[in-house]
Structure formats: C-alpha cells, structure tokens
Design brief:
The structure is a single chain. The protein has three helices and seven strands, in the order ββββαββααβ. The protein is α+β, with helices and mostly antiparallel strands. It has a seven-stranded antiparallel sheet, with helices on both faces.
C-alpha cells in the first residue's frame, strides 16, 4: 500500500518555521533509512542542503491518521546530466514499489532517475502517530 506523504524542512537559514513539499517521486523505507528521490531544482532540496532537519508525514487512512517521522537528511546529487546515484539494492527496492507509477507516467526507469536525480536519505530520529 502506498501512502500519500509530504516533507517538512526548515525554510531557509536563520528562519523559523517549516516549508512543506510533496513527495512526488515517492519514497522507500528499508527499516533504517527513508529514501526519497527528487528533482534537483526544488525548494526542499535547497532547504535540506542548508539544514538537514526534516519531517516526513504519511497519511495512514481515510480517517485522517498521520505518521510523522523526523530525522536528519543527507542529500546527494547526480553529476550534470546523470541519473540518481542509488545502490543496486536501493534501485531494486524503489522499482519494486514505484515501477507501476513510472509506467503509468510513460517513463522508463532511466528517464525517471535522470529527472529525479537528487537523492534524500533520512536517518530517522523519532516517529509518532496521531
């Protein structure tokens, strides 16, 4: 089951408050780290590059339940013109979860990972459900 989700990150250096951004590229959880791929030119990538504090919120059900996962993000970028730099295991897990969505969008995995070429890896520090 795929859950809708969004990422909160600190909105700029020295500013209070959070900026929300969708998780258009989807995410994968390996039991220790959350992996999100993103287009490199998004506000969430710029914000996380300045401050790694992040919260991922996932809608759990139709009644409005939300899982919030907090952590520290590490952002890596592909070289210009390159694809997202994922391990073989990360690629396999990502494709197992999101290949159908890529096919629906008429994108090959190579096209998708070239477009969503920044990788966010979140080390979880806390979670809660409400």
């Amino acid at each position: 089951m795929a859950f809708a989700g969004w990422v909160d990150c600190v909105a700029g250096v020295g500013q209070s408050g959070w900026a929300a951004a969708g998780v258009a590229g989807g995410y994968v959880w390996d039991g220790m780290t959350i992996l999100i791929v993103s287009r490199p030119d998004t506000p969430k990538i710029r914000n996380l590059s300045k401050n790694p504090r992040v919260a991922l919120h996932l809608d759990l059900d139709a009644e409005g339940g939300v899982l919030t996962i907090e952590g520290r993000a590490e952002v890596t970028h592909a070289p210009p013109g390159g694809a997202a730099q994922l391990t073989e295991a990360e690629t396999a897990a990502y494709l197992a979860k999101h290949l159908e969505s890529m096919t629906w969008a008429e994108l090959t995995p190579a096209e998708f990972f070239a477009d969503y070429s920044s990788v966010i890896r979140i080390a979880v520090t806390r979670s809660r459900i409400y």
